[in-house]
Fold each of these.
Amino acid sequence: MTTQNYIDIAEANLLHTYNRYKVVLDKGDGVYLYDTDGKKYLDFAAGIAVFAFGYGNKYYNDAVKAQVDKLVHTSNLYYNVPSAIAAERLVKLTGMDRVFFTNSGTEAIEGAVKTARRYAYDRDGTTDHEIIAMKHSFHGRSMGALSVTGNDKYQEPFKPLIGGVKFAEFNNLGSVKELVTDKTCAIILEPVQGEGGIYPCTEEFIKGVRKICDDNDILLIFDEIQCGMGRTGKMFAHEYFGVKPDVLTLAKALGCGVPVGAFLTNEKAAALKPGDHGTTYGGNPLAAAAINAVLDLFEKTDVLDNVNNVSAYLEEELDKLVDEFDCVELRRGKGLMQGLVLNKPVGEVITKALDNGLIIISAGAQIIRFVPPLIITKENVDEMINILKGALA
Ligand SMILES: *Cc1c(COP(=O)(O)O)cnc(C)c1O
């Protein structure tokens, strides 16, 4: 079968929820992907900030394969070894107290939202509580997560969403304060907004929001599904500010490709009780073995040093493009989560780059997003910049 055959089959049978690039990816090796015609691509998207350690990592693959042969699934009616170990390690790593494993990012957000409502129900015995979320945020596509996602286009056809959600301006403390009432149960934000356009929060903002939460008995939820797990050069982006959340959501690089997410709470926010929440798959032995392999790799390698070294270089090289090309307005981001803002739609640039063997993605109409595997080298950055320049010209 030809590449076009696969595309035709997919288009004839998949629900048409994506306008896909005309590429059928077939295998991966390190920071490179290959399509069904054998064409090679340098990958600066990592499956949307997922594949942190590159493709075909032997340690990771061996660990996942070994678990497949041992035990894949048990349900949560019983304990299993990989999930007990992964839970202890994640709690230690995050400084949180408890973890609930999910199958995706959006489910982690659902759990965080339910946690907030349950907490407030216990707090004052009433319902109809409110959540403050941010404009330009992205928290997922299920109804609860969509309800706290600050994007009219995603929300409009699916109304009514869950009630009581209000949107504040990101990095504008005053606009958050204005929305606080005695019904507020949580404030949710991404320390570095991802899909919304790669906007890092300011220290003043995140500290101010923490204080609002402390003063009003409100839970603070950090969504680090994209910016967590080493992406910004620290294990979690909020470590830059010395501010801790009450609830933390993770996914994407947490399992490096095996679908898994998690929400973690501190003891105060551990409000969900037996019967309040559940999942058939969440934290099954296979998913938990993937998490353990990923955590091993963070411990065994100097990947965070690599993120810090290479991202400094990536920033320099992207900044040069701002000077060199009229269509490039500015760069912003943290670590290996960078955005390049153009003064025009980025679709054509991304398609040209793809033609020339570079995978990059967008974050909003006019922003190119760079979220490569965390193991990329400066040589990979040079290679990327060369192809990108051709596509921008
Ligand atoms: C991707 C993403 C989600 C949703 O995760 P899914 O696994 O796609 O459901 C939620 N929040 C943030 C910040 C994300 O980047």
Note: The longest helix spans residues 303-324.
Amino acid sequence: MLEQAIGFLPSGSTMGDPADAGPLLEMRSAVLREAVAEFTAAFPGVKPFYATKCNPDPGVLRILGEAGCSFEIASTAELRMLTGLLGVPPEDLIFSNPVRARAQTAEAWSAGVRRFAVDSSEELRRTAAVAPGCDVLVRVATAPGDSLVPSEGKFGVGADDAVRLCREAAELGLNVHGLTFHMGSQTLTPEALGRPMDDVRQVITRIAADGLRIELLDIGGGFPARYAERIPPMAEFGRVFALKIKEFPYEVEAVAEPGRCLVASAGTFRCRVIGVASRHGVRWAHTDLGVFNGMMEALESGGELRYPLSDSRGSLATELFNVTGPTCDSQDTFATGVPLSADLREGDEIFVGSAGAYTATYSTRFHGFPLPRVVII
Ligand SMILES: *Cc1c(COP(=O)(O)O)cnc(C)c1O
């Protein structure tokens, strides 16, 4: 009943009890389209397969699809959403989770998904058992480089193992469709793209001796979005890629799996100040948005990911605030020492910019506080 009551509050309304409505994530469709345009301009001919997990709001997915993206999935729930809600053809998707429950591979295969990532002999055999003859992409490891959000280290194998897995895939009757890698998320140095490209070239050259020729290179995601600090232009990543792919022994179709860089800057959280407090000379703004219902990455990145903040009062006189969520957990603080209106008070709004990636989808109902609502504007 409570859920229902919340659902009846008009989006962005200041009526009723605003503290009960929870945070609102506004996604600007024009900015989503611009981000796709910027990416495709930097990577001509490289089709973006948007990483669905990053922001799976149906409205966001629809806009990205219309703007020319296909989709990368990691679960059958994502598959069903894309095919059911948006009518995306399953054969256009890439299932890039390298270890899947057998039932997930089987469901995706029977639904029409052709392409699956793998990074172990075990998964190759499991995949061959339920998706015989499918297309596989062998996942190559990337060195922990200059990514701001720690996300790599779990998947991917070195060049020697990748060569072996390509041979094994062929022996199992699978199609050695391609190679894939993923730099860590929010990678800030374009050179970080060059190293896995060199590894992939090595694998391609070595498997050619076995008569194996790949059709697809999938360069993954990890491209940076603009938060409070400057980032290198996307075109610099594109230049590194263009230089490296020229060294390949033959021409290969390339695709990418951008997530964050397509959706982060389109999103702004509007959250409500539920109270201000001063403790030991430090000013605190308590809001209905916190680490557990949207700002998890502030915690995950150890505060390195700095979201641009402003407030609805907009006073010229500012003071430094710590901004914290509604729970009793001290980990709930998502910004420290940020300038906000000195006379900030209960009921004011705080705007959190660059909030479109890994926020609403990455939230919990810890302590009973509401999940964010997402609207497209
Ligand atoms: C999460 C993920 C992405 C997207 O990463 P971003 O840093 O958001 O660009 C792409 N590919 C794979 C395999 C992923 O796991």
Note: The first helix runs from residue 2 to 7.
